[in-house]
Design a protein that fits this description.
Mean pLDDT is 84; it is low at 173-190 and 234-248. The chain has helices at 3-19, 28-37, 63-72, 120-123, 141-149, 161-167, 176-180, 182-189; strands at residues 25-26, 46-52, 76-81, 85-92, 95-102, 108-111, 115-118, 126-130, 133-137, 194-199, 211-214, 218-221, 227-231, 251-259, 262-271, 276-279, 294-295. By secondary structure, the protein is an alpha+beta fold. Helices cover 24% and strands 31% of the residues. The protein folds into two domains: 3-158, 2-Layer Sandwich (Beta Polymerase, domain 2), CATH 3.30.460.40; 176-295, Sandwich (Immunoglobulin-like), CATH 2.60.40.10. The strands form five sheets. It has a five-stranded mixed beta sheet with strand order 1-2-5-4-3. Helix 2 packs across helix 5.
């Protein structure tokens, strides 16, 4: 991260938000750095901000005027939506800013990659001093960061942090009899949403009985040819994708692939219904890879 550019953009965005009366808060890595280090995390690659829909009169209809203000200030803007939020990616000076507009559903809001947070963390946001200005964060921020990053959130971790985040997401569980018949049941309830993912080992051979965990959806096993059928359904979150992938239709998922004594967390991967993907491990780099699945 270019810290100087990050500071410039965050202060610029704050000015735009304030001018339109938009109450926003720091989230994810931006919140973590501000609370733990009183600084940006040097190895972070974006800024993360959030807005709760329905607060201070800010509604779905308020979003477009805000995005127009960003465009006028030189930002490239990309947006989309899901059941639980409206997401926007801002790009300027080679830095990405993710702004999520959260809907409150059953007194909770959805947080990537599969955590439902109590809305009480956002009812009365906490003021902090950061970059010489006042910013808002979830309240109490320590509880927010514990839920998001686990009990060791105060210890900086540059590598393998994605595994900690994914491991902190409650496991998806099915009764055993449903687990045994998950393929047929999922196919019945979600027809037309079958996605195939093939897992190969370091020698290019198909892996039988590899476990594929789609965070927020469940676990799937590969067959002798290395294929697993994944049944995608409406998710709580769909992220706008990098410009190089913007022509691909799909949602963003965190995926954990494990077999034998190997495991890799793919923190950000795009999957779309009715498509086939190929996973090839990297014998050298076993962590930190994103967007590595090949569509075939």
């Amino acid at each position: 991260m270019d810290v100087a550019i990050a500071e410039k953009l965050l202060l610029e965005i704050k000015e735009i938000m304030n001018s339109l009366g938009v109450q926003f808060f720091l989230r994810q890595g931006t919140c973590l750095g501000a609370i733990r280090d009183n600084a940006f995390i040097p190895w972070d690659d974006d800024l993360d901000l959030g807005v709760i829909l329905g607060v201070n009169g800010f509604t779905d209809q308020s979003i477009e005027p805000l995005l127009a203000a960003f465009r006028e200030s030189g930002y490239y803007v990309q947006s989309g939506s899901s059941d639980s939020l409206i997401y926007t990616t801002l790009l300027k000076d080679n830095m990405r800013v993710d702004v999520l507009f959260h809907r409150v559903i059953d007194e909770q809001i959805y947080h990537w990659p599969g955590i439902w947070l109590p809305v009480t963390l956002f009812n009365q946001l906490k003021e902090i001093n950061f970059l010489g200005k006042t910013f808002l964060v979830p309240n109490p921020p320590e509880e927010y960061l514990r839920i998001k990053y686990g009990p060791n959130w105060q210890s900086p971790k540059r590598f393998d942090y994605a595994k900690d985040v994914v491991d902190n997401v409650p496991k998806e569980q099915l009764p055993r009899f449903l687990e045994r018949t998950s393929r047929s049941i999922s196919g019945f309830f979600y027809p037309g949403n079958v996605t195939r993912l093939r897992v190969l080992d370091n020698n290019g051979a198909p892996v039988d009985r590899a476990n594929i965990r789609i965070v927020g959806l469940g676990n799937f096993k590969t067959n002798k040819q290395g294929y697993a059928k994944l049944y995608l359904k409406t998710k709580g979150y769909s992220s706008s994708m990098p410009p190089s992938l913007s022509d691909e239709v799909g949602d963003l998922y965190s995926i954990v692939i494990s077999y034998n004594d190997q495991e890799e967390v793919l923190y950000e991967e795009i999957l779309a219904p009715n498509r086939s993907y190929l996973y090839n491990p990297d014998p050298v780099q076993t962590e930190g890879r994103i967007f590595v699945l090949d569509q075939v």
